Amino acid sequence: MVRANSMAKVHTDMREMETKPTRRELSDTKGILKQNREFLDFFWDIAKPDQDTRVTAIENLVRYLRESKKDDELKYTLKRLVEGLAATREASRPGFSLALSQVLQTFEEIPLQTVLDQIKERHNLQKASKKQKRNAAFGNLFGVLALSQSGRLSKEPRVILEAVQLLQSLAAFRMHVKDLPQKTIVDILTETPEAVFEEVLFDALQNDLTSAFSTPEQLHLLLVAMQKFPAVLKSKKMKKLLGSSKVVTKENLSKLTEILKTAAKSVKKDNMLPPVARDLMRVAVQEESFEIFWDEVVINKLLKDQAAPCSFLCYRLLGSALPLLSLGQIGYVLRGDVLKHYGAHVVSAQVPAKFKFAPEMQQYVSSFLESCCDPDKQFAVITGFTCLTNHGNPVVPSMWTVVQNLQPSVVLRYVDWLKDMFCCPKMDLCLDFSTKRQQENFDGKNWSKNCVQRLRQWIIARLASIAENPQVKKEEDLVMGIARFIFFHSFFDSKKPTIKIPETQSQLSVPLDDSMRNVIGSSFFGLLLQLSHLPVIGESPEAASLNEKHIRGVTSNGSLWISCLVQYADRLLNASVQVHQVRPFTEEQRSAWNRVLESVEDLRKKGNKTHSAETMAFQQLFLLLGINLFKAPEESLDLLEDLHNCLAKSQQKKQKKSAKEDSEPQWFDVLVDILLSLLSQPSRLMRNVANVVFKHICPHVTQKSLNSILQLLQPENINDDEEESAVVVVDEKHSIKKKSTKHKGEEEDEHSENKSTSSEDDSDSDEDEDEDDDLSEEEGEVDENLRLELMNVLMGQSALATEEDKSDEEEVSDEAMMQLDERISALFSEQKKRLQAKKDEKERMRKENTLVRDFKIKVLDLIEIFLMKQQESPLVFGIIEPLLSVIEYSMNSESGKQEQDFLRKTADIFRNKLCRAKRYYKNVSAMKEELHGLMERLLTRTRKLKESSVAAYYFSAVLYLVRVLKGGLCDDSATPAVGKCKKKHTEDKVEVTPSKQAMDLGCLDLTRVLTLFSDALKHFMTKRKSVFTGNMFMDLFIRFPIISGALLDTTMKYITEGVRSHQQGQACSLVLKVLQTREVCQSLTEVAWSDLIEQVLAQVIQCLKSISVFRVKVDHEKVVKCLELTRFLITTIQKQKLPISLKDILPVLQSLDQLQDFHRSLQQSDTYWSVMKLFGIFKPKKEKVKVAEEEQSKQNSQKKKKKGFLPDTKKRKNRKKQTVEEVNMMSKLSTEDDKITEEDGKKNIRKQKKSKRKALDEQSATPSKKIKGTNDKKHRQKKAKQKPGNTK
């Protein structure tokens, strides 16, 4: 509709253009446009809001004009684009301006002067009416902007002068165009040659340059001219213009401040630095007056202003000034009040609702470091921001990514500076500040100590982040130096400096306490974890080769990072003269350490020869437990002893073992227990190493080892009778070790701690209600006990009146009363402690359950690794039932977030890693009976389930077993009898040879399997509350056509014998899927296929005859599925020309159309008519009422009422004249109006008045005159029809 109106407007404009004498040269445009519709569409697309559409239309327009080479079309294009500069539609003005610039740039033969004259004439501000002045102003603005963007304006000085003058004349319309004219003048100046500026533009812009301190736009114009034309604006001219040869002077500081405040407020919503501020700072640097500008304007004026835009302007000036300043000026700026004020903003802007400037400042610093080539400036900036501290803690984050833009030499220098600040904190170098709350809680005694501790903690995190970040330009020596530094200060102290150990050369000015060493130790093990995933550093060929192989966690020579650190630790232990260990090893621990080194060396030599995964696994475990001796020596000793035993057993030669040796656990079983113990440790490094080692020993895992892992996943009620577990759960927060029959996991890292904390918080609301209920019950029980104890206390003090002593005159003494109060108080205090103890016990149990779930989630990683690495192992079959039991129990247990994560991960592993595995065990001939029995147990268990969602996983496991048995390699002797496996529809079915059947079935006992699935199908079709679903059998039929063909007869009878409509519909879908299967069709002869189609058709006819009423939605779904099967049958019969009669089904189908609510379902109706179309019967078309169509078109054609003008209905007209039709209509409506009740008439008085006005408006819009009141009566007639009880 909008397009039609726009087209009408264009044609109207064209007709007006023909009538005007001033535009006779375009009088033939109407004919041109009628001939070429494509040309006109370009202008519609240019005015559309979508930017891509506009750009595409402009490109097509320029290409079309270049190819057509028609002058009349080019003239019309210029006229149309000039007119569009003042359009009011959204995005029209920029679109036409860009199109005009592209046309002028392409066709250089068009003189710019002519175009400028057209712009002035078409958008004349003097001739424009008051309402059109705004559009005319925009037309002039976008017209000059188009000339500037064409790139030809600098070649025509006269046009430049007129364009600038035209822009200056728009100053009176600042309310509309704002500062766009001044910005356009600045853009023109940047492209104007110096000679043109001096000869042409200087005089025209002299007034603007003289009043530079009036507005930000005029000052920006002066600053741009000074930078662009320094030879023209020399000191003499500047002095003549401004009264001084410089811009930044003491006399102009107040004016500059006001201009900057105005500019800051103007870009408040844009979050950007005003261009005038950036250029003013650049000029201040050039005039060597930056210090005056920074101190007087920025610090003393802008920073002290409480307005947020002024503060953000100061921060942006700081960030943008870095590339302009010298080394000394950078140090001066980064030690001033602006940076301190910025730090206070960062600390206070932690509230989510507040605006955060830190990301913008990071972008400024990152851009400077990336573009700066001076190492000294880079070092000054990175250390300057590091020294900005809040009570000792640097404001910038420890993971600040700007460090990746530093040069390698600067990174090395920065790391050395951080190490020096750690050993000897120089708080006087830091720009420290405190918040108001910190000042209120100021503690002079511990202030210095806390500041040093916070600074050191940040430095350790900063060093670790530099080593971990692969984007930082560094060498291996730098990473190793950082790791050694952190390890040294975690567990050692320096006694005497030595060159061999660089870490001893820096003495600590402030000693480290135990809490700080624990923090550094945690950072060290976190760094080890990241180093295990770090790509090989360097650009050497060896490093490139290792990176191509995706090898992580090694140096360029192939050594593990942890191995290098173990060697460094051994060097420190041997240098007892220079180094002192904070927690010295005992003799047992030291011997264990030496034994670890010997074992690692033996494994390394052996690994160089064999390169076995087993050797690598033991080596990593020894290194991890060895380095863990420094953190947890007691736990590591036991694990190391078990690991040495495992290594010794694994290296023994194969020989005959005694019965005693056979009863002992194998080395890989013990190793699995060690890995499970590592998973229970609160360390991501332990978990990572355990997973890596388990990948290496997967081929050695036995059923016993796998059962020990699966046993930990079993629900707690299943393991009540099991032996006590050896897994120790460590609660990192309270440092308590517990043993329980329930297998408990634990937190391992900060990420998992946060995850468990969030899960605890999510479950607090639910558990609080349970706690309240329990407490109320406990209080009820306690009240009875408390009442008895209270009675005893009162009776002991004779304070309770008895039946024998009924005198009220005798009173208890004050001393006895005080004793009584003390006993009662003690009684209630003890009761309160009991309640609190029970509550604490319940909270402890809840936390233990959380740790158990976390540990189970970690154990699932081992199962996932085994399924990925050992898909062809027969041990996979032993995982099916345990995982299914976990899923079943979790589905019926609590629905906390942590439990849902555990269930989701278990289900994902079971479905994707097990059931959908691409490879599986092939040699199943020896265990086919066991697998068939497992299949029977799963289907039996499935029938007893209550949830179909759980049954789906059981059925998926059954299908997986069918796939394994069918694809397995079977011996000839184990081949099932062919006669037992045959399933005939008719006697004419093709016989399958024994060799072919054995090849197709593998080790699958078809008779046994068919019995199982037949029973399951019967259960689904005959039980009202069956857990089986149609999708399960659909999946079975799709994946195994041989089974679907054998179950076809069983499925076919349920089309009519299904217990409910849902089952009957599913039977139709299953039969349809079987008939569409290529294998089933190819296995039958033509006669057998024809008989099968006839049998199915008979079932369908019987099913359709049974349909009499539609009660629920399932009835419609059943009919849809039955009709889809019918459509396939009829299509097959007609295409293959089978000798089957369709006379019986046609009356049945026709009878369906007569049923009530049959066509209520749109899908059912469409399917029905698609079937009837095969008989040549088409869906009847509904006749459209012409009267209603005409009324609708009349309503759409009515024009909108114009605002601000007197409507035609208000004008005096001759209302006495009436046509014969109107008189008849009036009489008819009057008779109908009499039937309306009096009560309805009173309610519709106001609506009648509105309808009268509407009728008058319609009367003015139509050519024939209507009498007053006609539409009013029509309205009342319509209302009367809608009222209940009123008849026409």
Automatic annotation (TrEMBL):
<feature type="compositionally biased region" description="Basic and acidic residues">
    <location>
        <begin position="1230"/>
        <end position="1243"/>
    </location>
</feature>
<dbReference type="Pfam" id="PF04931">
    <property type="entry name" value="DNA_pol_phi"/>
</dbReference>
<feature type="region of interest" description="Disordered">
    <location>
        <begin position="1188"/>
        <end position="1288"/>
    </location>
</feature>
<dbReference type="GO" id="GO:0003714">
    <property type="term" value="F:transcription corepressor activity"/>
</dbReference>
<keyword id="KW-0539">Nucleus</keyword>
<feature type="region of interest" description="Disordered">
    <location>
        <begin position="734"/>
        <end position="783"/>
    </location>
</feature>
<dbReference type="GO" id="GO:0005730">
    <property type="term" value="C:nucleolus"/>
</dbReference>
<feature type="compositionally biased region" description="Basic and acidic residues">
    <location>
        <begin position="10"/>
        <end position="27"/>
    </location>
</feature>
<feature type="compositionally biased region" description="Basic residues">
    <location>
        <begin position="1197"/>
        <end position="1217"/>
    </location>
</feature>
<dbReference type="GO" id="GO:0043565">
    <property type="term" value="F:sequence-specific DNA binding"/>
</dbReference>
<feature type="compositionally biased region" description="Basic residues">
    <location>
        <begin position="1244"/>
        <end position="1253"/>
    </location>
</feature>
<feature type="compositionally biased region" description="Acidic residues">
    <location>
        <begin position="759"/>
        <end position="783"/>
    </location>
</feature>
<protein>
    <submittedName>
        <fullName>MYB binding protein (P160) 1a</fullName>
    </submittedName>
</protein>
<comment type="similarity">
    <text>Belongs to the MYBBP1A family.</text>
</comment>
<feature type="compositionally biased region" description="Basic residues">
    <location>
        <begin position="1265"/>
        <end position="1282"/>
    </location>
</feature>
<dbReference type="GO" id="GO:0003723">
    <property type="term" value="F:RNA binding"/>
</dbReference>
<dbReference type="InterPro" id="IPR016024">
    <property type="entry name" value="ARM-type_fold"/>
</dbReference>
<dbReference type="InterPro" id="IPR007015">
    <property type="entry name" value="DNA_pol_V/MYBBP1A"/>
</dbReference>
<feature type="region of interest" description="Disordered">
    <location>
        <begin position="1"/>
        <end position="27"/>
    </location>
</feature>
